[in-house]
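Q: I have 97 residues here and want to know how they pack in 3D. Can you give me a structure?
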Amino acid sequence: MRFLLLILAAGLTLSAPADAQRRLSAQRGGEQDAAYRATQQGEILSLPEIRSRVRIPGADFIGAEFDGRVYRLKYMRGGEVIWIDVDARTGRVIGRQ
C-alpha cells in the first residue's frame, strides 16, 4: 500500500511542472495572438519592423516579450544581457537596461 501511495505521489509531483509549462505556453500564445491581432489592425508595428529599427552593434538578438504596448527586446553581447524597451505603436526606444 505504501509503495502505491509513493508512486501516486511521485506522479502528481512530476505532473506539476508539466502543468506549469502548459500554462506558460498558453500565456505566451495569448501574448502572440494579441500582438498578431494588433499588428493586423494597424495598431502596432510588427516585431520584424521593430527589430529592423533597433541596432545594437556586436550583440545577438535572443528574444522578445510583448505586453500589449511595449516590446522588450533581449540581446546578448559577450556576457552582458541588454534589454531594450520599444513603444509598439511608434517604434521609438523608450528604455534600455
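Q: Anything worth noting?
A: Strands lie at 60-66, 70-77, 80-87, 93-96. The two ends are 55 Å apart (CA to CA).
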